[in-house]
Amino acid sequence: MITRWENLTRDEIAALDKDNTIVMLPTSATEQHGAHLPVGTDAIILSTLIDRIIEKGTFEKGNLIFAPQLFVGKSNEHMGFAGTLTFSATTYYNMLHDLAKSIAASGFKKLVLFNSHGGNTDMCNLISRDLRIDLGLNVYVIDWWFTDFWQNGLKDIKQSGMYGVFHACELETSLMLEARPETVHMELAVDEDPADCFKGDKYVTVFGPVNAGWKTADVTKSGVIGAPTYATVEKGQKLFDYACDKLLDIFAEIADISY
Ligand SMILES: [Zn+2]
User: Fold this and answer.
1) How far is the CA of 61 from the centre of ligand 1 (A)?
2) Which domains does the chain have, with CATH numbers?
């Protein structure tokens, strides 16, 4: 079964086989995405992806339950642009910890933090170990910003350059053209590389290896980091299909893990 937590009754949740169920806690963000995309971009992409996984309908290795999505995350890097909502690190940590504790209290054993916003990645990785130690949960982090998650999906369709996929970019704009085209204003899309001090063949770049604790206004004037003008709805369709298949493959591997 693949479904959303909120659609189950108390007794249905109690009756689930906890040894064969993975609970996903979707983490996203509400933050500026340049002039052309809505502030809900990260949240809309994630909830659309969850809808499509649920539409697929079957998971042969047990149950996938999507807990209520968090539409606000840690986005303080975007403050200074209108429309951004953020929790502080400590508030966000405590919320995630409380939710995981509640999920564990219903008897679940496997939890996936399913994240669509790069500013949440460090928190997800940090808290995953604390949840293992504090609650005994087996916790996994699926993050698509600081892993190779999209790499194969983008291989044949990405047309922009080295910095084309980062924020409000070719990838996110294509996904939004497919998910919610009426909210995308392509006539306002501008491409922008990171500021010179954060790019090139050096140590301190937006991709590392030396990480700077930048805020968005240090890196971009427009609020875009990437190349949204390369986005198309066809790319968005292919990328959603790719992500659905890849995620089901990841979930299947997590279902088989025991320790
Ligand atoms: Zn985004």
Assistant:
1) 31
2) 2-256 (3.40.50.10310)
